[in-house]
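Researcher: Checking consistency across runs. Here is Winged helix-turn-helix transcriptional regulator again:
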Amino acid sequence: MDIKFLVNVTSRAWALPILASLHDGVPGRQAPLLTATGASRTAFAQSMDHLIDIGLLERNPGHGHPLRPEFRLTKQGAGVAELASRIQHLSGDENQDLLRRSWTVPVLTVLHRPSQFTEIKRRLLTISDRALSQSLQSMEERSWIRRSVDDMMRPPKPIYSTIHTGAMITKVTGAATETGYTQL
């Protein structure tokens, strides 16, 4: 999977929970998906529109009322939904808010080896310094990444590496990125 595509998918907070729910068998209608994800109606609608726009979801032709449409995963969406489901199950219920942040999954994906701040930023071209700093700090607080300082370098530089849940998610997303899980 291309990192740019992953950044695009995770740019809406409820995209991964919606995809994971559909993969796990929740019916593709608004009410069951809202219940499964816990999203607000507005955020849910924006995430659904986004997933349709990028080609991961489509309206199920011939099913559902015009005011209560039914949705289904596209072929490409099924692969991404499987990945989203694996990520959701690895993170546990108490960490769902961290997963809904735009940069959590992309940052974990590029942290397949210990890296400095500038290396991470270089791999995620569109991330701002502030967004990266906040993402790293929030994941460090949850013990998903570890920040260590390399005293051998002058000036000393922090190095970030994944641990615990962060390492498991990195392994899953890294494998998907390396194998071209989703072709655009």
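Researcher: Does this match what you'd expect to see?
Model: One thing to look at in this run: The chain has ten helices and five strands.
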